[in-house]
Amino acid sequence: MGAMRYVIAIDQGTTSSRAIVFDHDGSIVSTGQKEHAQLLPRAGWVEHDPMEIWENVREVIGLALSRANLTRHDIQAIGITNQRETTVVWEKATGRPVYNAIVWQDTRTQSLVDRLSADGGVGRFAETTGLPLSTYFSATKIAWILDHVEGAREKAEAGELLFGTTDTWVLWNLTGGPDGGTHATDVTNASRTLLLDLRTLDWDDSILTAFGVPRSMLPEVRSSAEVFGVAHSSSLLRETPIAGILGDQQAATFGQCAFSAGGAKNTYGTGNFLIVNTGTEIVRSSNGLLSTIAYKLGDGQTHYALEGSIAVTGSLVQWLRDNLGLIESADQIEALANTVEDNGGAYLVPAFSGLYAPHWRPDARGALVGLTRFVNKGHIARAALEAIAFQTREVLDAANADADVPLTELRVDGGATANNTMLQFQADILGLPVVRPVIGETTALGAAYAAGLAVGFWTGLDELRANWREDRRWEPTMGADERARLNRSWDKAVSKTLDWVDDDVR
Q1: Contact residues for 289 (Cβ-Cβ < 8 A; gap 6+)
Q2: Residue 243 in contact with residue 226, Cβ under 8 Å?
Q3: What is the pTM of this model?
Q4: Tens digit of pLDDT for each residue in 395-421?
Q5: Which of 258, 277, 271, 312 is CA-nearest to residue 402?
Q6: C-beta of residue 342 within 8 angstroms of C-beta of residue 396
Q7: Lesser CB count within 10 Å: N end or C end of the chain?
């Protein structure tokens, strides 16, 4: 094998960590994957063990290399992509986390959100950060750890603690940890903390003060494509440059080659994430979307985006499997849904931890409505798949209302895009073509692309665009009246989930 023929991406996700080796065509050469435990100590609390995640990352790198019979000499660069907002706080001297990672889905910090939004509303920091006050982002999670872990605030004030989202945690450990590890993040992950000024690309001191977070904890903010450091001598990839970092949804957008204004993708994962590239200007949403950073390559201009985040989509299928036992494995959902012609009048709104975009209603809870004796488990399975598509339609409507460039097609990726029934319904309910690429692992691919660009493995964006290939396209077949009827019923179902949580039942 010739040297330096490949790029490896580390994809540290919500449910698993993966390492994927890509060749110059953007094709997958090998993969290593390992799930980590979902720790659910109380209702609304979601945690991960950061040490388990780091051990798994080391292991999947070894798996991916061995399965392709490669060594570090074959790898030109490492890219990192990650579950965003998930918060790790650890000791600088030892690398030991002071608490479990608090995951993006976790809602324990709602009381802090309420307290801060009493002065200026949930949009209090939106002009600076592009984000509403929400439990979703990292800032309230850091504050919770400092306030609830004994001695944490004192250590943080003394400069002894570090914060990072999981890209930063992996980067720091990969580059040596306590032995000179690089404490940095990229602009896309930084833009999800609720602490970054979108214009200056620096942490905002007044917001840090509001949350009580010492600046010394925070990583250095860098571009998405540059050499952050090299893998430590203890790593199988030692001396290989880590040259790209993108938060998972931005990475998927990059992997879908949606580089310019109007480019868009929708990722179907644990949740759903629609991103519309708005070019080099920050577009403020008046329809419940987030303003966020799409990417920044080296010294190039910052590209921004609108994002619609949906909390529960793929995890709804897991819920039907694990909590209700309707299916034994997630891939059985499509066959069960196809045992019926339609949803039988049933609508399932998975507001398990409130509703994210475009509603931002933490008081909502899940509801299964429209039930009659006629409804069976096939209808419920179909209602679950349709819920994924309906929630995407709500977010796309908001994006179209905010952005000047209405979408003409929707590029999709993520695990649930293996489900042809769901994608056909998605095209029908949008009235737009839905397009799936040949390489479905667009998140890891985007991180690989960023790293490869930084070290000259790829020469520029045109070379990446040439790699993108369509696998399949779904055209809408539903009539406008039927589409309107279904969407109207969905909106009615959503209205039944609101105002559920009172102050005394949080």
Answers
A1: 306, 307, 308, 357, 358, 395, 398, 399, 402
A2: yes
A3: 0.88
A4: 988 988 887 767 788 999 988 898 999
A5: 277
A6: no
A7: N
